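Submission sheet (multi-component)
Chains listed below:
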Amino acid sequence: MASLGELERSVMEMLWTNDAALTANELRDTLAVRDGSGRVVATTTMLTVLSRLERKGFVSRSRVMRPHRYRALLSREEHTAELMHEVLDQSTDRAAALARFVGTVSEGEANTLRRLLDELAHH
Amino acid sequence: MFLVAGVLGALALALAWPVPVLLSRAAWPSRAPAVALALWQAIALAGGLSMIGCLLAFGSAAAGSFPAAVAQLAPALLDGPVPSAFGALEIAALALAGAVALLLILNLAFTAVRAERERRKQHQLVDVLSHPLPDDPRTRVLAHPALLAYCVPGIRTTTVLTDGLIEVLDRDELAAVIAHERTHLGQLHHLVRLAFRAWHSAIPWFPIANRAERSVVTLTEMLADDGARRLVGTDALRGALERVGNAGESGSFPDATPGASPDAAMLAARLVRLERLDRLDASTGDRGAAQDLPRGLPGLVLATSVGLVAISLTGYAAILGIVP
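Outcome: structure written.
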């Protein structure tokens, strides 16, 4: 039995590779195929996973018609940029939240990264 | 009471300026990071307690004890004149004591809440964006070219490595990095850093607070280095540090430059230390052997730490009228 965390990750992978908004059942079926094991998670499990992802700000739910459709709110790259931004940001208490790095990006890389991240932020 | 105020005041002054300056310049802490870290915590705790205690003792001297002063002043809060024993200075001292205590406590609380929120956010992002190492689910890999390793503390702890880092480090070096981060997590370094971060942000204009936080960060890095050394050996750790190299450690406040600017001084201090430990290991043939400290120094430092806190607590006992 895959953990909820693993399911969340798999669902996000599917939503990132699929441009269209998908229903819980479509996601469940795609997961079973991708997995290759033929294991099918229960639809209720899938709905739990999706509502967790929605609460965490990863997916948006379209309630226009039933069944509801889900799509990724941001691209994988945007989320990664967000994560890196928080990890590299030293100016706030974020630094206190994470016991720090052994090594981090080099100065040149850090500058490039910051520029990229700033561009993304102002996008 | 004036004697108590005097003693606590002298202690507060000593701990606010000369003692932290001397300690941050001393050479021995890099040889005994654990006891040095304990001493820093004692200095911060005793410093705060004695500063507040000095004000309380001075302000309540006229009444003989703090509870007595409260009993005499409380009615005056609602109506009626302030008892003549209390002058403007006494009232100001008591008010200042309350303000300082409130500032420190609220700052710690806010810092802790923000850090907790950030930790939760990190766990959420890391869970979805990274995949666990097959043989070690507590270590996760993030697809990103930056050379980066960090750990997210909490009830569930995670060490995060980037693709980029895995690419440039060899197996032992990676093991050293993971062991380093695990040591941070295991020894709860984030908590002591949080306290010093909160202290620093409560009085950001006070240079000693910055110096103290930097020293504490450096010491936790050295302790984490020791964890990695014990598990994987000095060579691998040094290799990793040199390889991610000009990167350096960014877990601190470089004084002027905010952002992820590398702290070359801290990295240099750690590398010099590792070199010395390497020589020591070679000469004693024992990895992680006792460091070349003067005998008795750790005991002395620990006794000093306990003593500092004990003196300020004794002052409070006098202020509260528990001891005469």
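Remark: Chain B touches chain A through 60 residues (CB under 8 Å).
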